[in-house]
Specification:
Blueprint (H helix, E strand, L loop, with lengths): L1 E7 L16 E2 L2 E2 H10 L5 E6 L3 H7 L6 E5 L6 H6 L11 E6 L7 H14 L3 E7 L8 E4 L5 E5 L6 H4 L3 E10 H7 L24 E5 L12 H21 L3 E2 L6 E2 L4 E2 L4 E2 L4 E3 L3 E2 L4 E2 L4 E3 L2 E2 L4 E2 L3 E3 L2 E2 L4 E2 L3 E4 L3 E2 L4 E13 L4 E13 L4 E2 L4 E3 L9 E3 L4 E2 L4 E3 L2 E3 L4 E2 L4 E2 L8 E2 L23
Parallel strand pairs: 1-4, 1-6, 4-5, 7-11, 12-15, 13-16, 14-17, 15-18, 16-19, 17-20, 18-21, 19-22, 20-23, 21-24, 22-25, 23-26, 24-27, 25-27, 26-27, 27-28, 28-29, 28-31, 29-32, 30-33, 31-34, 32-35, 33-36, 35-37
Antiparallel strand pairs: 2-3, 6-10, 7-10, 8-9
Bound molecules: uridine-diphosphate-N-acetylglucosamine and calcium ion.
Uridine-diphosphate-N-acetylglucosamine (UD1) binds next to strand 1, helix 3 and strand 10.
Length: 456
């Protein structure tokens, strides 16, 4: 049997945050969600999250993850005290317990798997994931013999100066034989610099404790403050971008691009500089995104081109051209081979295929048929000060430049609306509509010098 416990009860003083530290966001997910996700790959029989500081907030932020058991630690008297809280819920448990801290989001699933298998092969009392850090400041120092058998772990604050020179640190990730740990846990004291019950003291009471160095020391970084959080962003970003480039995505100046790891990209997608892809975004094969675009929770179809644009919660069909400077939002759906151009905003718009809105428009709460042409400067007046209303426009209809369509309104197929019209009533199919003040021309009004001839 395998159980996983995640320490997430601490306050995160060094982060200087109102939000519990483990809920800080890192490329689309919180620190603790990332840890839980990595832990899921060892398919644990039980997953326990130790909560304390602002526990209601942590519990509700994790409510979407099935089969988590929350264990309360109150007050928070240290990492050892946190694990002591498991004695009751795990009293009938036999097997191994993997302990992770909620603030080590860079840990790879393979590393946890490897830790468990080395632990089980060696039949150790405990196996500690260690790392050799260029700057070990702040971490617990691991003292072991040449066979990687650990003698002691001493917290940074309790180390003497010579002990601090030891660069092998504990990553705070462990695999324990639970029965042996359960016997050792009550022995913990708080005789240390921080007057806390340290989990690392438990190694003084266990039989065989072995160190396993992480292949990539960055994985063991604990995120305690905003500088470390920024560094973790960089690490996650480079991992994500490297993965997509290996999978056939071109990135131009990748250091200027950010991609949440919830994003999906097909082969032959090209991402131009200064582009940011967020949330559940999906970009289909052959599309070019950017430069300077921001896309969140949206699907962009095959071979689309999106430049200098913002797209949120929307879908774009194949071969469409978006931008420069478009904003598409509010669950809009744009069909295939459309052109949504310069300074055009779509909100809750359903746009049929081969429809163009190329310049300077606001199209909100609207259904456009296919092959519609929306002239420059067209506005749907969808709001009467109280409620939003729908505009429906049929296939092949042409809206003249600078028209205002006052919703609710239905305009049929094959309609032609004269430029500058303010259309307030429904229009039948196949009509020509001109809804503007007629042009007044007074010939011979000025003389050749530009003076008014007839002042009346
Ligand atoms: C801890 C380890 C240190 C290791 C480092 C790796 C101890 C005593 N020290 O130090 O050896 O090198 O992690 O990152 O274990 N927490 C609780 N309850 C508490 C205190 C903390 O749940 O009473 C949680 C925190 O929310 C956090 C985790 O435990 O997720 C680690 O606590 P933190 O204070 O960050 O420990 P470090 O000083 O980093
Ligand atoms: Ca830490």
């Amino acid at each position: 049997m395998l159980a996983v416990a995640i320490l997430a009860a601490g306050k995160g003083t060094r982060m200087k945050t109102d939000l519990p530290k483990v809920l800080q966001q890192l490329c689309g997910r919180s620190l603790v969600e990332r840890v839980l996700e990595s832990a899921a790959t060892i398919a644990p029989n039980r997953q326990l999250v130790i909560v304390g500081h602002k526990k209601e907030i942590v519990e509700s932020a994790l409510a979407h993850i099935p089969s988590l058991e929350f264990v309360t630690q109150s007050p928070q008297l240290g990492t050892g005290h946190a694990i002591q809280q498991l004695l009751e819920p795990l009293k009938d448990f036999t097997g191994d317990l993997v302990v992770l801290t909620g603030d080590t989001p860079l840990l790879r699933p393979e590393t946890i798997q490897n830790l468990v298998s080395v632990h089980q092969q060696r039949q150790a009392s405990a196996t500690v994931l260690t790392a050799q850090l260029p700057d070990p400041t702040g971490y617990g120092r691991v003292f072991c013999n040449q066979d990687f058998v650990i003698e002691r772990i001493i917290e940074h604050k309790d180390c003497t100066e010579p002990q601090r020179l030891n660069q092998r640190v504990s990553s705070g990730v462990y695999c324990f034989n639970w029965q042996e740990l359960a016997i050792a846990l009550p022995k913990l004291t708080s005789n240390n610099a921080q007057k806390e019950y340290y989990l690392t003291e438990v190694f003084d009471y266990l039989e065989t404790v072995i160190a396993l160095d992480a292949v990539d020391f960055e994985e063991s970084f604990g995120i305690n403050d905003r500088l470390q959080l920024a560094h973790a962003h960089q690490v996650i970003q480079s991992r994500t971008k490297e993965r997509w480039m290996r999978a056939g995505v071109t990135m131009i100046l990748p250091e200027t691009i950010t991609i949440d790891d919830t994003v999906e990209l097909d082969v032959d997608v090209i991402i131009e500089p200064q582009t940011h892809l967020r949330g559940k975004t999906k970009i289909l094969a052959g599309a070019t995104i950017g430069p300077n675009s921001f896309i969140t929770n949206s699907t962009i179809g095959h071979n689309c081109q999106v430049s200098y644009s913002v797209i949120e919660d929307s879908e774009i069909g194949a071969d469409s051209k978006i931008g420069p400077f478009s904003r598409i939002r509010g669950a809009s759906v744009v069909g295939d081979r459309c052109r949504i151009g310069n300074f055009v905003e779509l909100k809750q718009a359903k746009v049929g295929s081969k429809t163009n809105a190329a310049h300077l428009s606001y199209l909100g709460d609207v259904t456009l048929g296919s092959q519609v042409n929306v002239g420059a400067g067209t506005i749907t007046a969808n709001y009467d000060g109280f409620a939003k209303h729908q505009t429906v426009i049929g296939d092949r209809t042409k809206i003249g430049s600078n028209s205002v369509l006052v919703a609710p309104i239905q305009i049929g197929d094959n309609v032609n609306i004269g430029a500058g019209s303010v259309v307030t009533k429904d229009v039948e199919a196949n009509s020509l509509v001109i809804a503007r003040a007629p042009q007044v021309v007074k010939p011979d009004y000025y003389d050749a010098q530009g003076k008014k001839k007839n002042p009346s």
